[in-house]
Design goal:
Helix content is about 65%, strand content about 5%. It is mainly alpha-helical. Helix 4 (about 105-130) packs antiparallel against helix 5 (about 135-155) and helix 8 crosses helix 10 (about 225-250). The radius of gyration is 22 Å and the shape is globular.
Length: about 375
């Protein structure tokens, strides 16, 4: 007796028979919008917006956000959310500098930061899986504890390497480049592409989607749900530490205790916005990249058109997040209505097997 497990995507891509314009707007509508915004701002500010210097500045400054958006995306694929990433990046950028001021080698500092990020992720996973605490509440509480530790270690003051004891190789982590492309952006892009490869082409990615879609069905097909949830939370913690180390490297010997929470909303916005494109109705790596790109283009363009208005960034992020959540909610209702609709098969057709109402469905068959 054997078990045959099939995976079937129910993301909201239009059917093959749909007209081309529906496919374009549904799957690549956000890509088109990104291009339109770029053209508008390039025409409005040709001397400052569409320049190599502006690209380099934006790519370098947004690399931390892209890594954090990836860190948020992984648990979301598994049906969880990690709100501690904003506070974690603040802690690790402080510790990466403080440990070097205390005399530690920068390579040990990087290792300890990554290890600490993994432990934070593991702690979040234990709360979510063993204690069965809702991930939203658990990671928000963990984030507050991390924030308190950051203020405790710094005394609420700015940490400054006045003596210049930090390693020059540590600063070089953020100053190297690949041609005209800043090094931190290259690192962030490589991490995003690795996630895309895992989610789209490896069994681990399919199992993560399965766990996020229907944990019980995943377990019935032999997927170790707990293992994948723990791995997703640990990966999120490690990527948060990577972002913190790169952020500390970019700040040239200065670390602020309150830096970090400001990254949380933009990272969530990018991940939610990414679920509305490329693979509409499903969190995906390419969509997350596009979410960061459209936020970067929109905020940068508006700030150049209306300089000096500091409310533009939080306003743009807030409105974009509302729009992304609304679209995701509508998509969820559409999936639910599709799942509840009766299956009608013609006499010559074999009816489709029922599927879950989320991104992945499972069908178990026993054969003698």
């Amino acid at each position: 007796m054997t078990m045959n497990t099939s995976l079937k995507s129910t993301a909201l891509e239009p059917p093959k028979s749909a007209p081309w314009y529906r496919k374009l707007t549904t799957v690549y509508g956000m890509v088109v919008l990104t291009g339109v915004l770029f053209v508008i701002f390039a025409i409005a500010r040709p001397d400052t917006f569409a320049t190599l210097l502006n690209f380099q500045l934006l790519a370098s400054s947004q690399s931390t956000l892209l890594i954090l958006a990836i860190a948020v995306t992984i648990p979301m694929v598994a049906g969880k959310i990690d709100l501690s990433i904003g506070y974690g990046v603040g802690l690790w950028q402080v510790m990466a500098l403080q440990w070097q001021i205390a005399g530690m080698d920068y390579r040990l500092v990087i290792f300890l930061s990554l290890l600490g990020g993994a432990l934070v992720g593991l702690f979040n996973a234990l709360l979510v899986e063993l204690a069965q605490v809702d991930a939203f509440i658990a990671t928000l509480a963990t984030g507050q504890v991390i924030f308190a530790i950051t203020y405790w270690t710094t005394g609420g003051r700015q940490v400054t390497d006045n003596a210049g004891v930090r390693a020059s190789a540590f600063d070089a982590l953020s100053t190297w480049s690949l041609g005209p492309v800043p090094g931190p952006f290259v690192i962030a892009l490589v991490l995003a592409l690795l996630l895309w490869l895992v989610l789209e082409f490896l069994p681990a990615g399919r199992y993560l989607y399965a766990v996020g879609a229907n944990p019980r069905a995943a377990e019935l097909t032999g997927v170790n749900r707990r293992r994948y949830v723990v791995s997703a939370m640990v990966a999120s913690g490690v990527l948060t530490a990577v972002a913190g180390v790169l952020l500390a490297s970019k700040q040239a010997g200065v670390a602020q205790a309150n830096i970090g929470p400001e990254y949380l909303l933009p990272a969530l916005t990018a991940a939610f916005l990414g679920s509305t494109t490329i693979k509409p109705g499903r969190v995906n790596a390419l969509g997350t990249i596009l979410g960061v790109v459209i936020a970067t283009i929109g905020i940068s363009g508006l700030q150049q058109l209306i300089p000096g208005q500091f409310f533009l960034e939080p306003l743009f992020n807030g409105l974009t997040l509302v729009a992304a959540i609304t679209i995701a909610s509508l998509a969820s209702r559409r999936r639910a209505s599709r799942a509840d609709a009766p299956i009608v098969a013609s006499p010559t057709e074999t009816p489709e097997e029922p599927h879950d109402d989320d991104a992945v469905s499972f069908t178990n068959r026993e054969e003698k």
